[in-house]
Amino acid sequence: MAEQQDVISLSLDELYSLVRKALMHHGVSDRHADAIARVITQGERDECHSHGIYRLLGCVRSVQSGKVDPRAEPTVRDVAPGVLAVDAHHGFSLLAFEMGLPMLAEKARSQGLAAMAINRCFHFSALWPEVEAIAAQGLVGLAMNPSHSWVAPAGGTRGVFGTNPIAFAWPRAAGHPFVFDFATSAIARGDIELHAREGRPIPPHWAIGPDGRPTTDARAALEGAMQTFGGHKGSALAAMVELLAGALIGDLTSMESQAFDDGAGASPCHGELVIAIDPQRFLGGGYAAGQARAEGLFAAVVEQGARLPSQRRFEARARSMRDGVRISAALYRDVLELFDT
Ligand code: NDP
Ligand code: PYC
Q1: How many helices (H) and strands (E) does the chain have?
Q2: What is residue 3's predicted lDDT score, i.e. its pLDDT?
Q3: Average pLDDT, integer, range 80-106
Q4: pLDDT at 4 over 80
């Protein structure tokens, strides 16, 4: 660890160990601590600050709230040839994902397409680590989940939807997969929280304040309602996530998750839908041609100077793997204070 004025430099190993130790200090089991520390380290490594080490504070708060079972052992259930369900038993979601992934991949390979419902999980993380793990097996990945009802529908003023991320990954023969992962709100709530922590203003299209008017005050935004991205289009996608990753899989919508929290301040508790598709099954002998077509599409994007989603992230990853990460001294202090309670 190296300190330089208001920034602390950590290697990825140091970061991982720090997160893991803090979680275990608060009674999180080895297996959950490993899964969480891996994903938080990946978030910081890829410079996704809203879902990096900052999330450790929320994880510990969730455990302290008494809502999460930090030692819950997920159970995997084979539901149908193309469907499985993982019950997280009110633990964090990441171990449940890891435990379900082998069966999801096996079913996708045998059926061409498979879906995994993760139920009763506390969810705080970005989704790209999950769809990237699916793409690493040569499969197309799609994942989504509700959260808390912080987001107003387009044309409304009161929260109904969660920030409801949708993530997609397409495996490529060489290099990183094509990946996008975004909230269906104008921005992740974690980003507004970071603006509020640091006293920075936000763009007016991110949220409305408690008075129902657009605001640049991050604290007012957290008390008001967030906006969807792309107006009615983001609003419809957010509703789709509530339906597919809530009603369809027998789990809570964002409004229900918020009610379940009952002011405890834990991470949202709900379900997640993860879909894997095997392009070899779909394309058979045409697999190479299908891949080539996809590469033609990506080339047409980058050739004109536009960038592919996740390119910034992959560049950040290369940098962090070489140089480690730098986090603000204020955040680092907050993390160290977790060991005092
Ligand atoms: P952003 O708006 O920052 O980015 C979303 C995506 O767009 C990324 O894949 C990003 O790639 C890509 N992108 C950004 N700018 C460009 C560009 N100019 N050209 C091409 N692609 C671009 O994300 P959000 O704030 O919406 O979400 C951040 C994270 O929060 C996500 O990882 C999401 O999973 C997580 N989240 C989790 C929730 C949960 O319930 N667990 C709820 C809501 C969000 P790149 O990264 O390379 O910039
Ligand atoms: O940043 O919106 C968010 C979020 C919700 C749950 C996890 N992240």
Answers
A1: 13, 12
A2: 64
A3: 98
A4: no
CA of 268 to the centre of ligand 2 (A): 8
Section 68-94 average pLDDT: 98
Cα-to-centroid distance, 291 and ligand 1 (Å): 25
Asked whether the predicted pLDDT for residue 1 surpasses 90, the reply is no
Mean pLDDT of 77-93: 98
Domains recognised in the chain with CATH numbers: 2-64+310-340 (1.10.1530.10), 75-185+228-285 (3.30.1370.60)
Query: Largest Cα–Cα distance in the chain?
Result: 60
The residue behind tokens 């793997």 is 321
pLDDT at 167: 98
215 in contact with ligand 2, CB cutoff 6 A: no
**Is there an atom of ligand 2 within 6 Å of 40 CB?**
no
Token pair recorded at residue 53: 């080490």
State if residue 268 touches ligand 2 by the CB under 6 angstroms criterion.
yes
Side by side, the strands of the sheet bearing 113-122 are 75-80, 83-92, 113-122, 269-277, 140-144, 166-170, 178-182
DSSP 97-145: HHHHHHHHHHHHHHHSEEEEEEEEEE--S-SHHHHHHHHTTT-EEEEE-
pLDDT tens readout for residues 303-316: 999 999 999 999 99
Closest CA to 170 of 211, 205, 128: 128
**124, amino acid identity:** F
Q: CB of 149 closer than 6 A to ligand 2?
A: no
Contact status, residue 193 vs residue 51, Cβ threshold 8 Å: no
Rounded to the nearest angstrom, the distance between the alpha carbon of 180 and the centre of ligand 1 is 7
pLDDT tens digits for range 185-200: 999 999 999 999 999 9
Judged by its nearest atom, the ligand closest to the C-alpha of residue 62 is 2
Distance CA 268, CA 310 (A): 25
Per-residue confidence (pLDDT) for residue 224, from 0 to 100: 98
